[in-house]
Amino acid sequence: MLEQITNLMMAYAKPSIIIVAVLVTLFTTLVTKYFTNQNRMKELKDIQKACRIQMKDNKGNPQELEKINKQVMECSMEMMKHSFKPMFITFIPLLILIYWLRGIYTIILPGWIWWYIISSVIASIALRKLLKVV
Description:
Layout: H1 2-11, H2 13-35, H3 38-57, H4 62-108, H5 112-131
């Protein structure tokens, strides 16, 4: 079964790398959605947005800028903390997949990694909007 899939992927290299990229992106997006507190992430993004506006309004006040900058850093740290769990869940499977894909595509499609990256970025933007993932 795996050999048949590999042969099909080699026969249709570009379409198959796009399909793989979309499927992997769907997997990582779903893991992110269900293993992070989406409401808290939205709150943190809103706080950061408000801080950026305050920073523009207080350009001439270094003390106020320092307080706002501290709040932005705290939000960033909390967002990073929330993103670690999905990253740990997806990291090893993605490494294995990339290693497997490299074995399939390196010979027949030398620039395969760029096809994968571009497809993943586009799919990620679309899927995050569609699935409402922060």
